[in-house]
Amino acid sequence: MERLNKFLAQAGVASRRKCDQLIKEGKVTVDGRVVTSPGEKVRGEEIIKVENKIVEKKEELVYVELYKPRGYITTVCDPRGRPTVMELVPEITTRVFPVGRLDSESEGLLFLTNDGALSYFLTHPRFEVEKKYLVYVSGEINERELSVLKRGIIVKEIPYRIRQGKIRDVYSNCSIVEVVLIEGKKHEIRIMFDYLGYPVLRLIRVGMGPLSLDENLLPGEWRYLSSEEVQLLQKYQEEKLGK
Length: 243
Known about the structure:
Layout: E1 2-3, H1 4-10, H2 16-24, E2 28-30, E3 33-34, E4 41-42, E5 48-50, E6 53-54, E7 63-68, E8 97-98, E9 107-113, H3 116-123, E10 131-138, H4 143-151, E11 153-155, E12 158-160, E13 164-170, E14 174-181, H5 188-196, E15 200-208, E16 211-212, E17 222-224, H6 227-241
Parallel strand pairs: 9-15
Antiparallel strand pairs: 1-4, 2-3, 2-5, 5-6, 7-9, 7-17, 8-9, 10-14, 10-15, 11-12, 13-14, 15-16
């Protein structure tokens, strides 16, 4: 069972907000009955019409968590013939797409799904979905230098800023920093730490929104999200959107 407005949005009728409006205006029927509550529960087996046109249920939604290893391009295909993350999930027969990007030399948490609405939500900057990374950098960084990135910098007329930053460990020639971003500019983390004079040695995404990288997954391994994890993502989305 799911909310009628969510069913309509996932079926591609319109945005969730527009679907709410259509329902409240009495333009949606379920098995011939006019429904005016967006929260009405449906199974998806009913005859659902919008302005007297039957809404076809889309294919089953699939949600996958992949530990992206280094050396793979985060795209469905690459014209230059480089290996892509899709080559790591040949067993998945449903057409899924990577959510957001990790550059070739970055690794860690990557979602793949055919849920376009959720993908858009997780990646569009205006929703301010937090992405957490572990950043291994060359040299011994300190809190004062890290605070520069919290205040924000400008490189080639482009602004960059981290939302949160915490030094996890400092060694004689390497530091490990936990960083939280809400945007996804190209090579953003590498550019910021290069600005401070600490080149990135290793970059791992360990969290996105309410979910964290499964510590049992090795690079290149994947699994389907549990129903509880999918519900957690959906609840997070609804709270962010004020639904």
